[in-house]
């Protein structure tokens, strides 16, 4: 089973049952709820909050991402460890500005200093190596949103436990659809319009 990235099973269990009455019997279900919450948060924000090392390849068909000296990435970049131009030439990291320059990661633009221009040979790629993601450890708001949404998903198995509307005394129960509003509120500042492209 995949390991949760934005919170822990113990944190969710404590959130749902501070007196530890929940026990460990439903740990598999709780883990599934965390993973579903994380996937939904990634989809909603168009981001990854537990960045991992990797390599991205951009062929000459991505040349439209270049504006003058700037290359606009299609994902968040937390740190850059290597860059190869499209002609196979290794670019010194000191010859690249990561932008926005006055903010902390994530970065979305690689801007060459004046000594270099972006170029491609017919069958080569611009190769970007680094840690891709908004962060390497989920911010506090993302952790809280994950716990809250995972708890909401877990409680959906019990009739009448989740947020409801309607005439409950008459047997009418309506479940809110989708992500709870308080989770959306926590995620709003982190939402990317395109996932980091423009």
What structural keywords apply?
198 residues, alpha+beta, 6-stranded antiparallel sheet, two-stranded antiparallel ribbon, 8 strands, elongated
Catalogue the unreliable spans.
none
How many alpha or pi helices?
Answer: 4
Describe the main β-sheet briefly: 6 strands, antiparallel
Category by helix and strand content: alpha+beta
Count of beta strands: 8
Average of the residue pLDDT scores: 88
Shape: elongated
In angstroms, what is the radius of gyration?
22 Å
Kindly state the percentage of residues in helix: 25-40%
Oligomer: single chain
Give the N-to-C terminal Cα separation. Answer: 35 Å
State which percent range the strand residues make up: 15-25%
Domain tally = 2
Order of helices and strands: HHEEEEEEHEEH
Could you walk me through the main structural features you see in this protein, from its secondary elements to its overall organization?
The chain is α+β, with helices and mostly antiparallel strands and 198 residues long. It has two domains: 9-47 and 137-186, no CATH class; 52-132, no CATH class. The chain contains four helices and eight strands; from the N terminus they run ααββββββαββα. The chain has helices at 9-16, 27-45, 140-155, 181-187; strands at 52-58, 66-67, 70-84, 96-99, 107-112, 126-132, 164-165, 174-175. Strands 1, 2, 3, 4, 5 and 6 form a six-stranded antiparallel β-sheet that branches. The protein has a two-stranded antiparallel sheet with strand order 7-8. The relative contact order is 0.21. The mean pLDDT is 88.
């Amino acid at each position: 089973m995949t390991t949760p990235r934005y919170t822990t099973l113990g944190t969710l269990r404590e959130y749902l049952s501070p007196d530890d009455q929940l026990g460990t019997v439903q740990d598999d279900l709780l883990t599934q709820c965390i993973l579903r919450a994380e996937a939904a948060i990634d989809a909603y924000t168009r981001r990854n909050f537990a960045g991992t090392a990797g390599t991205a390849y951009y062929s000459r068909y991505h040349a439209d991402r270049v504006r003058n000296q700037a290359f606009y990435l299609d994902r968040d970049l937390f740190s850059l460890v290597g860059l190869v131009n499209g002609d196979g030439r290794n670019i010194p990291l000191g010859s690249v500005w990561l932008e926005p320059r006055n903010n902390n990661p994530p970065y979305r633009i690689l801007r060459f200093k004046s000594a270099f221009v972006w170029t491609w040979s017919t069958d080569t790629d611009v190769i970007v190596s680094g840690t891709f993601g908004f962060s390497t450890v989920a911010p506090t708001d993302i952790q809280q949103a994950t716990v809250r949404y995972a708890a909401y998903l877990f409680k959906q198995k019990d009739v009448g436990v989740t947020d409801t509307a309607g005439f409950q005394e008459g047997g009418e129960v309506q479940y809110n659809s989708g992500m709870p509003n308080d989770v959306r509120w926590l995620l709003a500042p982190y939402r990317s319009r395109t996932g980091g492209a423009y």
